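Dear colleagues,

As part of the handover before I leave the project, I'm documenting each prediction I ran so the next person doesn't have to rerun anything. This entry is a single chain, and its sequence is reproduced below.
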Amino acid sequence: MGEKRDYYEILGVSKGADDGELKKAFRSMARKFHPDKNDAPDADERFKEIQEAYAVLSDSQKRAQYDRFGHDTPGGSPFGAGGFQGFNINFDDILGGDLFSNIFGGGRSRSRSSQRQGQDILLRHEISLESVLNGSKEEVEVDLPSHCEDCEGTGARDGKTTACDECNGKGQVRVRQQIGPFVQDVVRECPHCEGSGRKAAANCKTCRGNGLSTTAQTLRFSVPAGASDGTRLRMRGKGHPAPFGRGNSGDLFIELNIEEHSWFERNGMDLIMSIPIGYSDLALGTVITLPHLDEKELKIKIPAGTNSGDTVVISGRGLPSSRGIGRGDVVVLCKLHMPRKFNKATRKTLESIKDELAGGDDAIQRILDDAADHRS
């Protein structure tokens, strides 16, 4: 980074700043420039610069030397022959551990209750388009984990437990770890008792010590009208029980998957379908009646002179908004149905009226004539 900057300038404090101001400035700058939080190319160098500045100014002896000599301290670096990289500082003691626990995910442990939250469960459930249109009440039978009744979820035979040998019943252990040039003491959940502070005197024979069993349960829930594919419904407390019966159970999420319909495709609130129609019906017009999701007949009026590829829109017969405001449309794509074979009588009739049906040939000729005029 070139010539070293003034330490007070790096932290953004005056030369008369007290320890509290230095600590506050360091916390703010460290959060801002930590490489895990800042994608700037120079974030790593800036973070090291901030660390070095605070390491000097927070030490009264080194600060006095710096105030007198600046960076040209007699005898070289204040950190010895190893320079700043050889300097170790315990931020748990200086900052109470909260800053670096937020940055590195270490430091002081999270609340014990949050660590014992049971895992969530995801269940996928198929529903029909009719359920999306009207909403529905659903009921499913599913096997879910629950506390073992014999040991009440403790995993211990007869519920008898003893203090964990590793953490002496505290549920936490202190670990010293190296973070770059620093050494930090962090408090973590004891891995041997999973933070409970207790262990089974003997494992429960029914659950083999894991404190869980599986039971069949009936889940009842409502599908909201207008629900989208992939919508997730939450049932609080229906997930995995907390480890060893200490804490809150996780949640159960029900993901709604919409079944394919025989002729409708969904596009937001609209229902789209294609329908094959004979040439005479396209030419003369017709009315096609189909059953619909709302149990009322869907009448599709095909106007005379409709071309293959034209659409007919039936307003207000689509799906409802998830907010309960209005309904979408039904959009019908008209497609020409061409029979594979004709009997002799039909073929003869078509031959006799071929000239009258030659509108397509005339249109092609007009396109060719327009192209020729354009070239000339």
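The chain has a mean pLDDT of 80. The chain is about 25% helix and 25% strand.

All the best with the project,
I.
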